[in-house]
Amino acid sequence: MIGRISGRLDWRGPDHVLIDVRGVGYIVHVNDRTLAAMPALGEAVSLYTDLLVREDLLQLFGFPTMLEKEWHKLLTTVQGVGAKAAMAILGTLGPEGVGRAITLGDARAVQAAPGVGPKLAQRIILELKAKAPGVMAAGVGLSAKAEAEDLVIEPAPAPTRTVKPDGGATRRAAFSADALSALINLGYGQGDAAQAVATAMGDQPEADTAALIRASLKLLAPR
Fold first, then answer.
1. I want to staple 43 with a disulfide (CB 3.0 to 4.6 A). Which of 5, 39, 59, 76 is the partner?
2. Verdict on whether the full-model pTM lies above 0.85
3. Phi, psi angle pair for 35, to nearest 5°
4. Residue 110's CATH number
5. Would residue 152 count as lying in a domain?
6. Both 109 and 174 in a single domain?
7. Chain-centre distance of CA 17, in angstroms?
8. Are 210 and 133 in contact (CB under 8 A)?
């Protein structure tokens, strides 16, 4: 599995780029947002990648962050959402927008992506709404952009969180902060989000970030 590509941008097409890695060129498919953020030809570039393997096809899809890659993988678990459709959704909404739309049940936002009809948008919402908080919880550690340094192909490192041995309070504070950040990214005001997280933490003192996000969203949901 090729988890990351770092090299020089050699060519760009309408939906893909060619990255030269020590004399070997790799075609990497990207969405509109990623393509627009590409540097000038000849400059260093790095992307996290996902390899699509079929009997008659090998395709690399590239993402500026691991967060976007994780959303792409999750979207493709929905029946009817292929790799290109997932790229279109991410290109239209971005990873934060995808998380916001799915968590808030905004099918119209998902439907704005090219090739996504109302039925497919609803299916995405229904199938991923319970899974979205988990990706959002990991978002803080996965949102860093890939950096082109060594011009090598290497697997993307798994995100880690350092927790002190005496961990209880420190770990809970980190979960709370990450949940608050996720809610603010969804568009909630800081005051309302902080109150919801505090209430959820009081009700579930051992909850991790994903559980806090789910509980907070229930508290914030209009009645």
1. 39
2. no
3. -60, -40
4. 1.10.150.20
5. no
6. no
7. 20
8. yes
Task: Report how far Cα 123 is from the mean position of its chain's Cα atoms.
Answer: 19
Question: Rounded distance, CA 153 to CA 21, Å?
Answer: 8
Q: Is residue 155 part of a domain?
A: no
Segments in 13-117 forming alpha helices (H) = 32-36, 66-75, 83-103, 107-111
The verdict on residue 82 lying in a domain is: yes
Give the residue carrying structure tokens 């959303």: 71
User: Whose CA is closest to 81, among 37, 36, 47, 126?
Assistant: 126
Burial of 44 (0-12, 13-18, 19+ CB in 10 A): middle
3-class DSSP assignment, residue 123 = helix
Q: What is the pLDDT along the chain (223 residues), one digit of tens a residue?
A: 788 999 999 999 999 999 999 999 999 999 999 999 999 999 999 999 998 887 778 899 999 999 899 999 999 999 999 999 999 999 999 988 898 889 888 999 999 999 999 999 999 999 998 888 888 777 666 666 776 654 444 444 544 444 444 456 677 777 788 888 877 777 778 778 888 888 888 888 888 888 888 888 888 876 5
Number of domains in the chain: 3
**What DSSP string runs through 175-217?**
HHHHHHHHHHHTT--HHHHHHHHHHHHHH-TT--HHHHHHHHH
| Nearest CA among 31, 67, 72, 33 for reference residue 50 | 72
